[in-house]
UniProtKB/TrEMBL annotation:
This is Response regulatory domain-containing protein. It comes from Candidatus Nomurabacteria bacterium GW2011_GWB1_44_12. Keywords: Phosphoprotein. SUPFAM superfamilies: CheY-like. GO terms for biological process: phosphorelay signal transduction system. Residues 7-139 form the Response regulatory domain. Pfam families: Response_reg.
Length: 142
């Protein structure tokens, strides 16, 4: 019997980042061990998160993204923080590991993300592909 693949969800509004993430998986042979889905919005993410058959084990999410608040579209870090609050505040989803995956390196953002339950805060940068592989593999050992 084949072992069930761990599910990973990437949430990022930048299509290039989503493609790069998918390519890193393919290039490093991780698609044999993990099921990767990518989405561009938190609304799309909750389609996966709320369904027990597609619920991810690990989420990589951008922080500053577009989202709907009070019926209006806006773009701010509140998109990532709201997502984190909802995941970590729900007993059914609180065990999902969440890695903030952001171009912003403000200590205020990092501190808030960690206080809300993020496992890590990864700044997007040159070493990003290697960092992603290392982080994903570290979750195998814990």
């Amino acid at each position: 019997m084949e072992a069930q693949k761990k599910k990973i969800l990437l949430i990022d509004d930048n299509e290039i980042v989503r493609l790069m993430f998918s390519n890193v998986f393919w290039l490093h042979g991780l698609d044999d061990k993990y099921e990767l889905n990518t989405v561009g919005t938190t609304d799309e993410a909750f389609v996966f998160i709320d369904n027990t058959s597609t619920r991810p084990d690990i989420i990589f999410t951008g922080l500053v993204m577009p989202f709907t608040k009070d019926g209006k579209k806006e773009t701010s870090a509140e998109a990532g923080f709201s997502l984190l609050r909802r995941i970590k505040g729900d007993q059914a989803t609180q065990s999902i590991r969440v890695v903030i995956f952001s171009g912003y390196n403000e200590e205020e953002y990092r501190a808030q993300a960690m206080s809300l339950g993020a496992e890590m805060y990864l700044q997007k940068g040159e070493n990003m592909p290697q960092d992603l592989i290392q982080i994903i593999r570290s979750f195998d050992n814990s």
